[in-house]
Amino acid sequence: MRSPARAAWQPVCFSPSMRFRPRPLLALSLAALLLAAGCSRLPVSLPFTGVIEPAIVPSRAASGSQEVRREFPFEDVTVRLEVPVDRATYAGAAGAAKSAIFLGGKRPPDWVAGYYRAFVEEKHQDAFYASLLDALRQVRREKGLDSDRYVELVTSMAQSMQYRTDPANLAPKFPIETFGDGYGDCDDKTLLAAALLSRDGYDVAVLVFSPEKHVALGVRAPGLDYRHTGYAYVEMTTPSLVGVPSEELDDGARLTSQPLVVRIGSGTRAYAAGERILYIQRRLGEVQSAERKLADEVAKGTADLSAREASLARMRQELQAETDPAAAAAEVARYNAQVTVVRDLAAQLRAKAARYNALLETERYTAEHQTSRPQVYARLEAADV
Hints:
Blueprint: H1 26-36, E1 50-52, E2 65-74, E3 77-86, H2 87-94, E4 101-103, H3 111-121, H4 126-143, H5 147-160, E5 162-163, H6 175-181, E6 183-184, H7 186-199, E7 204-209, E8 214-219, E9 232-234, E10 260-264, H8 274-321, H9 325-368, H10 373-381
Parallel strand pairs: 5-6
Antiparallel strand pairs: 1-4, 2-3, 7-8, 7-10, 8-9
Helix pairs in contact: 3-7, 5-7, 6-7, 8-9, 8-10
């Protein structure tokens, strides 16, 4: 899936509709195999229509678990996690067929929703989910995070993983793979975050933008409803605040389609920091507007200052050539008055330039601390706009 423009170096991944093709002969092949084995009477009827979704078969060649260490920036600290990952489950996930198989050659209209849910709900990942959630909840207790900051902790973990696609396999990965690998594309990281938040009771969804080949996370958040989906948009390819949509993708294209909403789990808990997110967006706009105004004023003031300094240079030349003492005294007085004006103008320009630089630094801080909503809020609140 595509990444936003601010991460333009990242590769492109693709929507499910670009990856999978129905296999209408599978049901007949299964029936033929059973008949060949002498099963002329079947105890149950074969599902000649339907979908076989991706599933994990743990590998018999792997055993034990591996401690996987991950670290990521969150607010004013670096969070470090250490989580056991079962080798057999991980290997089974990595080697699993990731295609949706359509029995009878018919593609159900809601197959995409079931397809994405299959990656999240695969039961062999339950132990992994439990271990990772235990680690995240421990961070929550240590930092005294409320419900909203916990959402930001989980999304920050997934967002901070390297954005990378596998050119040989463009299908989504199971969340255990994404965490074990430490990288993934937009749907991989979205599925990981959705799996964790849904298990902690949050109302979340996967937002699928098929025309733009992009996937994002949706979190129930009053005041941040994205395009009447009922969910706030959360960009997962790069660190980003909850509820702030990508303005454009890496190739300059914009998200214009209405996303398919695939709800994950049955949680009811919502993200309640919408008012603060809206304040951050509004205040950032005010900062950027003030920057533009100051930049224009400094440019005009600099031109005026240059003209006045040139005038002073000419006055000095005239003073040097003046031979009449009375006229020279009058010229000195005018010259000194102009020097005072120039000094005052220069002081004003220095003050405006300093204010401009401070606002620019606030904007830079905001862009670089997208996992630090409380700190960004405080920084923007204190900005001299």
